[in-house]
Write a structure and sequence with these properties.
Helix content is about 25%, strand content about 35%. The strands form two sheets. A four-stranded mixed beta sheet has the order 1-4-3-2. The radius of gyration is 15 Å and the shape is globular. The chain is an alpha/beta fold and about 120 residues long. About 10% of the residues are buried. The protein folds into two domains: about 55 residues, 2,3-Dihydroxybiphenyl 1,2-Dioxygenase, domain 1; about 55 residues, Roll (2,3-Dihydroxybiphenyl 1,2-Dioxygenase, domain 1).
């Protein structure tokens, strides 16, 4: 068995597609009307579909999971993030851990937690 994709639930799939393309360069591989597979294995699923299949409501900013990306030029990414419209909600701005890794944490438009860090 192998992990194939990571799925996140979004309210506005077009807005999320733009967010992940603009900030991370992810492109659409497959679009199945409410289920969109992006490069790097990220899947966006429309919240209405999720709620219909699971019978569960979405809890934004639940901080139970995190998408993790690595970026060598994290200072440039932090500047790009600061200029993004609409503004992102930060968990922490650019910081450095005691082991030397620089990271930044923020939410996507639907409250999915994202961390971008320098390679370890």
């Amino acid at each position: 068995m192998k992990l194939k994709n990571v799925l996140i639930v979004v309210k506005d799939i077009e807005k999320s597609k733009k967010f992940y393309k603009d900030l991370f360069g992810l492109e659409v591989i497959v679009d199945h009307d409410g289920n969109m597979i992006l490069t790097e294995g990220l899947v966006l699923q429309d919240a209405a579909i999720w709620e219909r299949f699971t019978g569960k409501s979405i809890v934004p900013e639940n901080n139970a999971t995190e998408l993790y990306f690595e970026e060598r030029d994290i200072e440039a990414f932090a500047e790009k993030l600061d200029q993004y419209e609409p503004p992102v909600k930060y968990v922490n701005r650019l910081m450095e851990h005691s082991w030397g890794q620089k990271v930044i944490r923020f939410y996507d438009p639907d409250g999915n937690l994202i961390e971008v860090g320098t390679p370890v």
